[in-house]
Amino acid sequence: MPELRKDPITGRWVIIATERAKRPTDFLREPSAHAHGGFCPFCPGNEAKTPSEILAYRGNGSTPNSTGWTVRVIPNKFPALGIEGDLGRMGEGLFDKMNGVGAHEVIIETPEHEGTFSRLTEKGLEDVLWAYRDRIVDLRKDRRFRYILIFKNHGEAAGASLEHPHSQLIALPIVPIRVREEVDGAKQYYSLKERCIFCDMIRQEMDSKVRVVDENESFVVIEPYAPRFPFETWILPKVHESHYENGQMREFQNLSRALKKLVSQMDQVLERPAYNMVLHTSPVQEQTSAHYHWHIELMPKLTRVAGFEWGTGFYINPTPPEEAAQFLRNAEI
Amino acid sequence: MPELRKDPITGRWVIIATERAKRPTDFLREPSAHAHGGFCPFCPGNEAKTPSEILAYRGNGSTPNSTGWTVRVIPNKFPALGIEGDLGRMGEGLFDKMNGVGAHEVIIETPEHEGTFSRLTEKGLEDVLWAYRDRIVDLRKDRRFRYILIFKNHGEAAGASLEHPHSQLIALPIVPIRVREEVDGAKQYYSLKERCIFCDMIRQEMDSKVRVVDENESFVVIEPYAPRFPFETWILPKVHESHYENGQMREFQNLSRALKKLVSQMDQVLERPAYNMVLHTSPVQEQTSAHYHWHIELMPKLTRVAGFEWGTGFYINPTPPEEAAQFLRNAEI
């Protein structure tokens, strides 16, 4: 009998279709690789072909917008939002709109064109995580921005249009609805119990261990109880913290280790899948809170989304998370 | 300057990225066509290869599970849910689950393997709409079911695994979260205004006309104000009604006309795109209401969803709905 499971934070129900359970090799995968060859604007030497850098980690003596960087942040050449101007909120009959004010940046993660997360050194990946943090700290000063969304599309099937390893940042004048829902869901639990729901979940998962993929000093890596997608995986800090940018230095080191290991496990078990990674953190203008707990969600692109999910928020997941956790734990990396 | 627009029903904000506005020919389309050849279990003559039919519209004298039908409804051979048993709601620490009880049916829309919505006769398509209605009326008697989800994935890129034209029905023991959100959003507006938000929207759209694609005696076809996807299109009944299955006979005729015309317009403008269609109707065990207004949402698959949308509910749409409406209105069909 298939199971219906409820995500305790958002209240979203998911079908875990155990009877047509899929093993990693059953998925019809779209290749994560892009067509090769051609000009790459993110490779060293082509700095002049991108907008001027906002931030770069560079060796001593190298000059901005030239080679010598390890991580480089630039404005998106085709931004979805414009950085200048005020919000201009207004109505249009019963509709509401505002100007598309915001920032849209690209974090070039490494000079290496083939430097995926599993191939970067732990220090190299840690630098990417610091760049996320530095950009958040800078952008949150702009009071127009209510949420800073950091995400990574890896592989063409996951929506990446350029192969060179990069993440994206979008600073928004609104809090996206699913973020609002997640933060409010956690708040509701806190009102009831005076405990963080993520902390409770971490305790329960570490006791039962069936959905735990990995842990280190600072982080636990789990398959969530009600995942929308096969092999959807969350990385959560063990010590409660609502805002990513408030992490301790030691935590960024351990996050790099956990993330590199997870992507390596996925590469091995799922044959280098395309994936999406999303940083879930508190809205920037909100105080540090006892109810929300930042984390990373990583979703390999293994199934074709059947589209009706858009209209309904309803998901059918053919892989029980307990099995996914076991496959990942057993990966030979 | 791009625009941020808010969907008045759900409160979802969307970026309308006017500065990289896309015309219909700009989309990199995945073909809607499937690989041809091979055995089709939905074609006439192969009735014995599918589970026994639940409902069929047949000519006089033809026997069940043989040829002679125009629309045929069968259980899904690989159901995501099982029809037998009770819900068995239970907790698992802080998690909630229940048995995956429900129905999963396939509506084979026509005996013609190539009989897409634009090629069916109006009467043929009307029969499909009646089959939706008949199955809802039958299944709602089962008090375990709280929502009946009817949707169609057309084309491989939209998630269809078989080419032969078909829709799907999933009867669920829960109300999916986005449906709940939409119904509750409409209810909130009603509490404030004592008017249906969809009725207000229809009036405003019919006044301004910029987002209206088509209308007939009973239906209006519009591009919504804050669409998630390019060419996302809604078909709404002009007269308020909360439940699809309560439609008047004349309305099913006019819905068939509107839907056939819309799909033909999309076929012409977007070169026969893959698409998803979702019927949005009230939860079956809820009374007829003054606040919710059933409708159909049709989303051509033109963009690759970049994945972070999953985590955030945040969409960037490169085609303003006013332009999409104009393209569709001007289609030569």
Keywords:
homodimer, 333 residues, alpha+beta, HIT family, subunit A, ten-stranded antiparallel beta sheet, three-stranded mixed beta sheet, 6 helices, 15 strands, 23% strand
Query: In CATH, what is the homologous superfamily of chain A?
Result: HIT-like
Q: Mean pLDDT of chain A, rounded to whole units?
A: 91
Q: Bin the helical content of chain A.
A: 10-25%
How many beta strands in the DSSP annotation of chain A? 15
Oligomer: homodimer
Reported for the largest beta sheet of chain A, the result is: 10 strands, antiparallel
- Please state the structural category of chain A: alpha+beta
How many domains of chain A? The number is 1
With strands numbered from the N-terminus, the spatial order across the biggest sheet of chain A is 3-4-7-9-8-13-14-12-11-10
Described by the principal axes of the CA atoms, the overall outline of chain A is globular
**Secondary structure tally, helices of chain A:** 6
User: How big is the Rg of chain A?
Assistant: 20 Å
Name the pair of protein chains with the most residues at their interface, and give those residue counts.
A-B, 74 and 74 residues
Named CATH architecture of chain A: 2-Layer Sandwich
